[in-house]
Amino acid sequence: MPSAGFWSIGGYKISFRKDGRWYADDEVIGNARIARLFAENVRSDGKGGWVIDVGIDRHPVTVEDTALVVTVLEGDPAAGFRVRANDGVTDDLDCTTLTIGDDNVLYCELDRGERGKIRARFLRGPYYLLTGHLEIDEATGTAALANRGRRHPIARRS
User: Fold this and answer.
1) Are residues 114 and 90 in the same domain?
2) Domain assignment of residue 79, given as a range
3) pLDDT of 105-149, one tens digit each?
4) 20 and 74, same structural domain?
5) CATH number, domain at 112?
């Protein structure tokens, strides 16, 4: 696969995996601009799957867990938290959407306008920064996050 410039996405099995990287067949897409283009244009196909929708070019995508990942966390409980995803968009963290999945993976929802709300998985760096602020109730084992003077319980995802 070409590592520079643009190439047609047809002819490859495109996937986005838990490690937060795009793949063509089983090869990592090393071109950061193409990976960003895919992240900016991935959307639900309306049938439970995902597509990359770039102009007239639509290509099905296999999404291993989530279509976006949180790559950067900024802020603190007093000022509030902001997250940046792999599509380059930075948003205030909506703590009401935080959930904990299998293996204690942390998720949130990100509003992407016409693409809708997309669940995002926290990569390790932002995960460890945010979990350093969690309050754990020892009796119940439940977690909560203080953000701008409010306490937000974090539900387990089924």
Assistant:
1) yes
2) 68-156
3) 999 999 999 999 999 999 999 999 999 999 988 888 889 999 999
4) no
5) 2.30.270
Neighbours of 27 (CB within 10 A): 11
State the pTM of this model: 0.88
**CA 137/CA 99 separation, integer angstroms:** 16
Concatenate the DSSP letters of all residues of the chain into one string.
--SSS---STTS-EEE-TTS-EEETTEE---HHHHHHHHHHEEE-SSS-EEEEETTEEEEEEESS-SEEEEEEEEETTTEEEEEETTS-EEE--GGG-EE-GGG-EEEEEE-GGG-EEEEEEPHHHHHHHHTTEEE-TTT--EEEEETTEEEEEEEP-
Q: Check residue 126 and give left, alpha or beta (phi > 0: left; psi -120 to 50: alpha).
A: alpha
Distance CA 37, CA 14 (A): 13
Identity at 100, one-letter amino acid code: I
Sign of CA dihedral 91, 93, 98, 100: positive
Structure-token pair, residue 124: 């390790």
36 φ/ψ angles, rounded to the nearest 5 degrees: -65, -40
